[in-house]
Design brief:
By secondary structure, the chain is mainly α. It is built from seven helices and no strands.
């Protein structure tokens, strides 16, 4: 019985890992579509979102079955309940990749982008890394890696602010005709920053799962622990 339970937990981990890979791919493709103004690539992200939705439902069903049939305790209980929360965050991250793809469809038939994208690709790489690292921290119960993800959230905020400041001050304020092209880019930066927020939420859940410690709203303590 115990060996079967361990197999079920391993299957649950695999489901989270698969969903995380799909979400990371959706982020890459949505911003790749933006850089290329590629409508077909953007539409593929939107269409394939249903696969990620199905992953979330499957994970939720597996978690509910484990809770009902196995009545897990302590760390196993926290792992299963956190898996349900994490699948929800991952699904929302995928929805944000869909939002980015919809911005691409808005921009594709308009004049070229206002400027070469610099900070948005940086924010994309950060979102990818945070997504990849936080899934790894969950699978391996790596609290140190989870803390690193949380500490990266401030960098995501800073990059979003850089995009906003440049578009507002250098483009919109100087020529109102730029608004229709600038607003979608402002939203893309916001969508990417929100993806990083969800990765941060997952990292907080990982720390709670492993240490039963609530770190939400206490980022200053993470910094102190990282220096210890």
């Amino acid at each position: 019985m115990e060996r079967h339970f361990d197999t079920e937990l391993a299957d649950l981990k695999c489901g989270i890992l698969k969903m995380g890979d799909l979400v990371e791919e959706a982020i890459i493709d949505s911003v790749g579509a933006l850089k290329e103004l590629n409508k077909a690539r953007a539409e593929r992200v939107i269409t394939e979102d249903k696969v990620i939705d199905e992953c979330e439902l499957k994970i939720d069903e597996e978690c509910l079955d484990l809770l009902a049939l196995r009545q897990p305790m302590a760390v196993d209980l926290r792992f299963i309940t956190m898996a349900m929360k994490i699948s929800t965050d991952l699904e929302r991250m995928a929805d944000l990749a869909v939002d980015i793809s919809q911005r691409v469809l808005e921009l594709a038939d308009r004049p070229p982008l206002l400027k070469p994208l610099v900070d948005i690709p940086k924010l994309t790489l950060l979102a990818q890394r945070m997504t990849r690292d936080v899934i790894s921290s969950f699978i391996n119960k790596d609290v140190d890696l989870a803390r690193q993800v949380i500490l990266c959230d401030r960098e995501a905020d800073d990059l979003r602010n850089l995009v906003q400041q440049e578009l507002l001050h250098d483009y919109i304020s100087k020529n109102k005709a730029n608004i229709s092209r600038a607003i979608p880019l402002l939203l893309v930066a916001r969508h990417l920053e929100r993806i990083c927020d969800h990765a941060t939420n997952i990292a907080e859940d990982v720390i709670y799962m492993v240490e039963a410690k609530v770190v939400k709203h206490h980022i200053e303590k993470l910094g102190q622990e990282g220096q210890a």
